[in-house]
From TrEMBL:
Protein family (similarity comment): Belongs to the LysR transcriptional regulatory family.
Assigned keywords, A-Z: DNA-binding, Transcription, Transcription regulation
Listed Gene3D superfamilies: 3.40.190.290, Winged helix-like DNA-binding domain superfamily/Winged helix DNA-binding domain
Entry annotated with the keyword Transcription regulation: yes
One Pfam family here: HTH_1
Native species: Kushneria avicenniae
GO molecular function per UniProt: DNA-binding transcription factor activity; sequence-specific DNA binding
Protein name per its UniProtKB record: DNA-binding transcriptional regulator, LysR family
One record GO biological process: DNA-templated transcription
Record-annotated HTH lysR-type domain positions: 1-59
InterPro entries recorded: LysR-type_TF_proteobact-type, LysR_HTH_N, LysR_subst-bd, WH-like_DNA-bd_sf, WH_DNA-bd_sf
Keyword Oxidoreductase assigned: no
Phylogenetic classification of the source organism: Bacteria, Pseudomonadati, Pseudomonadota, Gammaproteobacteria, Oceanospirillales
Length: 301
């Protein structure tokens, strides 16, 4: 207990420029603070601070004690919080980021269901064109495609997805069915454009060899849903993620192409801060997302 008390004491001390300010913050006399610091340094066998009448300055050992101590105290708080969460209803804020398309279609409805089951959790859904930096925007969970962009984040797969080349039966009846990726260059391909860049470099893999095709077409948009509707209306071939086209594929309004080739994976991941003890509301929300998406979307073929 003394070690924990000393860690808390030093955290407060290190936040102030002088011993006098620290004493006021701690509600102790100046002599009591000075004596306790001396006792702490004696116990550890190192000097933690250089002090003058006006200023305090950390030594190298003091910097290490401060930083490692902060991490230990945070882990202790997280441990106690996670243990407490197991014995009481979930509560507290939960800030979630997702992109507009996937967020509107699936994340928002699952949040509605989650908050009905756990009314003590206050969820903020932040939708954006592109995934936000969780650490910079003080977010708890990000729903992204692909691996975690930062080593300080932990990722868990929510949904397996990949690119699918497909077109309507009407278009294929008129233009013919491509049997190789290279044949796509002779077809009208409908492109999704984002950030002034055209997604016109389509990738396919067979026997470990990647084949890339530069495609073009008469119609493009920065709105993927519009491009998908054009394809269903018979205007050309699209190359979209499985979750975006699985319903029209199941209904026969679109037909998959080049099925003997693999395409890049576009798995959805939930990312959150690296923590030894993850708050229960974060863990349970990710569980709910995984289960909910499995019920809402067909498995990847």
């Amino acid at each position: 207990m003394k070690a924990i008390s000393d860690l808390h004491f030093f955290q407060v001390l290190a936040r102030h420029e002088s011993m006098t300010q620290a004493a006021q913050a701690l509600g102790l006399s100046l002599s009591a603070v000075s004596k306790r610091l001396s006792q702490l340094e004696k116990r550890l066998g190192v000097q933690l601070m250089r002090r003058t009448t006006r200023r305090l300055a950390l030594t190298g050992e003091g910097e290490q004690y401060l930083q490692r101590g902060a991490s230990l105290l945070q882990e202790l708080d997280e441990l106690e919080s996670s243990l407490g969460d197991q014995h009481r209803a979930l509560s507290g804020p939960l800030r979630v980021n997702a992109t507009f398309g996937f967020g509107r279609a699936h994340v928002a409805p699952l949040i509605e269901q989650f908050t009905c089951e756990h009314p003590g959790v206050e969820v903020l859904l932040d939708l954006s064109d592109y995934p936000r930096d969780l650490l910079a925007h003080d977010l708890d969970i990000g729903i992204i495609v692909g691996p975690a962009p930062d080593s300080r984040l932990r990722a868990r797969r929510l949904l397996a997805s990949r690119r699918i080349a497909c077109a309507s039966p009407d278009y294929l009846a008129r233009a013919g069915r491509p049997v190789t990726p290279e044949a796509l260059a002779r077809h009208n391909c409908l492109l999704v454009r984002e950030r002034d860049a055209g997604f016109d470099d389509w990738r396919f893999i067979k026997d470990g060899q990647e084949r890339r095709v530069r495609v073009s077409g008469t119609m493009s948009s920065n709105d993927g849903e519009s491009v998908t509707r054009w394809a269903m209306a018979g205007h050309g071939i699209i190359y979209r993620s499985w979750w975006q086209v699985q319903q029209p594929l199941a209904l026969g309004r679109l037909v998959p192409l080049l099925s003997d080739f693999e395409t890049p994976r576009m798995d959805f991941m939930a990312v959150h801060r690296q923590q030894r003890f993850v708050p229960e509301r974060i863990a349970r929300f990710i569980d709910a997302m995984t289960e909910g998406l499995a019920e809402r979307l067909l498995p990847l073929p």
